[in-house]
Amino acid sequence: MAAQPKRGGVSLPERRSASKPESSILARITSSPIFSRGKQAACDAAFASKKLIRSTGKAAWIAGTTFLILAVPLIIEMDREQQFGELELQQASLLGAPSTASANK
Question: How does residue 70 score in pLDDT terms, banded at 50, 70 and 90?
Fold first, then answer.
């Protein structure tokens, strides 16, 4: 079986100790194909998670700056227009003219 290139993972060199034989239970588990497939799956999942988090952050940045550039000035202008309308009604009531808001009702 040919070695596949690894994405996002770090492979460490295997340790071989002269005092412990190669047939230890830990050595047999770590050299099993199930263990290596699990390790590869974990590395792939970590790589995909990092990419997802990075792209989500970029999308949030784009949405936030778009909101600041487009929506905030619109909200400010709508508030100004409302205050201007209230000021006109207040001035009209002080001058004794009939209120346009009560005439429409």
Answer: very high
Global model pTM greater than 0.90:
no
Asked whether the beta carbons of 27 and 19 are under 8 A apart, the reply is: no
Asked if residue 12 is part of any domain, the answer here is no
Pair of tokens at residue 28: 């047999």
CA angle 9, 14, 5 (to 5 degrees): 35
Q: Please indicate, yes or no, if residue 63 is contained in any of the structural domains.
A: yes
Amino acid letter at 94?
A: L
Domain count along the chain: 1
Q: Give the pair of three-digit tokens for residue 24.
A: 């230890």
Cα-based torsion angle of the residue sequence 26, 31, 32, 34 in order, rounded to the nearest 10 degrees: 100
Task: Check residue 43 and give its pLDDT.
Answer: 95
Give the structural domain span for 72: 25-96
Tokens matching residue 79: 């508030």
